[in-house]
Input
Amino acid sequence: MSVHSEIKKITTETLRKMKFDKEKITMLTAYDFTTAKMVDAGGVDAILVGDSASNVMAGFETTLPITLDHMIYHAQCVVRGVDRALVVVDLPFGSYQSNPEKALESSVRIMKESQAHAIKLEGGSEVEESIRKIVNAGIPVMGHLGLTPQSIFQFGTYKVRAKEDEEAEKLLKDAKLLEELGCFALVLEKIPAALAKKVSESISIPTIGIGAGPDCDGQVLVYHDMVGMNQGFSPKFLRRYLDLYTEITGAVSEFVKDVKAVDFPNEKESY
Ligand code: KIV
Output
């Protein structure tokens, strides 16, 4: 964050104030320079360099295979494209679960090597000590509860989480714990809208929902999903703002047709 910039940068404090002022927070994912530039210019408050890069950039089934080095590379590309938004980077699977020292080491690498503004990690009481250590080192932490895709093999499905009382109670307790530990915000993924409302009203830090109803303090979507690049992924919570899969494959077909017909390049397009 340059101190000489004219643009008013979004900070963790801005997000806290937005919750207080009841102004909804917007977050989208980005994993590369060009997309980050467009997403930032479109006016989102935060950009998440999500470990969903494992799915949409690398083509893996789950978020588990992506490495810390890969996440740092994506974060570096994004940070270079952003003037205004807060850039949050996911700690990938295996980079923080084993012990708090490793969690801090991974977070420090992300902050130092990418110059992003915050990290995000999944889980509640299980990662309490890690969050404490990272926050104590001065690194802003975003939590993530509900459907936490790094635990997919424990859950077994991508279905809605915390429908039953026991899991809902643990989630509410975890949300309060994350607030107490000093997290600046919290993603709530794929949980009942009523529970997300209760959580959002019970804590002072902003909640950012994905498949968690309208009463979260903000909303996040995966960029590739919201611009319709992913035809095969159609959860109920997703709103597609474009159909880029059709647009892009159509443009590619036109290019192929024009080259085959020796219509491209024409005289005007040649030196
Ligand atoms: O990795 C990601 O894109 C995420 C969002 C779904 C919140 O964690």
